[in-house]
Amino acid sequence: MFRLNNNSMNPLKILTKKDWIVYLTVNLIVLIISLVFALIAIYEAKIAEEQRRLAIELAYEQQQALEQAILTEVARKQEIAAIQYKTGLDDEIARKIVEEAGRYESLNSNLIAAVMFVESSYNPIAVSHAGAIGIMQIMPVTGEWLAEFLERPFTIDLLYDPLYNIELACYYLDYLLDMYDNNLHSALTAYNRGPTGLERFIENNQRTSSTYSNKVIELYESFKNTSPN
């Protein structure tokens, strides 16, 4: 009887060395390709997760920014209303005061309003005996100098525009506060008399506080303690 050779039934036993090399190489390539695709999938998953995280963070930041903007706008409107309540000024001028107060760290709306009242009693066409003009009493020569720094046009007539006058005056106040290391009496006396006038005042009186600075600060403190609520 014919017997089938068991070796002929197992193809692996008849593979040559070369066949084994080819077989292993092919399987290795398949394994490498599988690993590459697996790594790509992992990388893409990480990228997707990172993008999702960034999207969540961005949405959160935008929400926070929106909420902050709303709060800032509410606070700004409240400040405008408070200035109008304290001074009786119209909406446009009150808005300008708050705008300029926000522009300079050294200033605030109560201080600006106090200087404005002492200077002109809120009269935009006031002219002093010395020639200072407008709601915050800017001398023409000083106004021209300030306008140059701010890169703004200048004519004497512009000083009668309360918004223009406030813009120049607030820049000058901030400049003086910086010059005198935020000493409010020095800055206010210099605003009233000029820097040279302040020097003469100190020489004659051995102090920086003047009748003018005391009057402004007294009103400033009163404004700070006055609330429409």
Sketch the major β-sheet: none
Q: CATH class of the largest domain, please?
A: Mainly Alpha
CATH architecture of the largest domain: Orthogonal Bundle
Gyration radius, in Å: 39 Å
Classification by helices and strands: mainly alpha
SSE ordering = HHHHHHHH
Domains (count): 2
Strand content: under 5%
**Helical content class:** 55-70%
Number of strands: 0
Oligomer description: single chain
The averaged pLDDT comes out at 89
Please state the overall shape, judged from the principal axes of the Cα atoms.
Answer: elongated
| CATH level-3 fold name of the largest domain | Lysozyme
Brief synopsis:
The protein is mostly helical and 229 residues long. The chain contains eight helices and no strands.
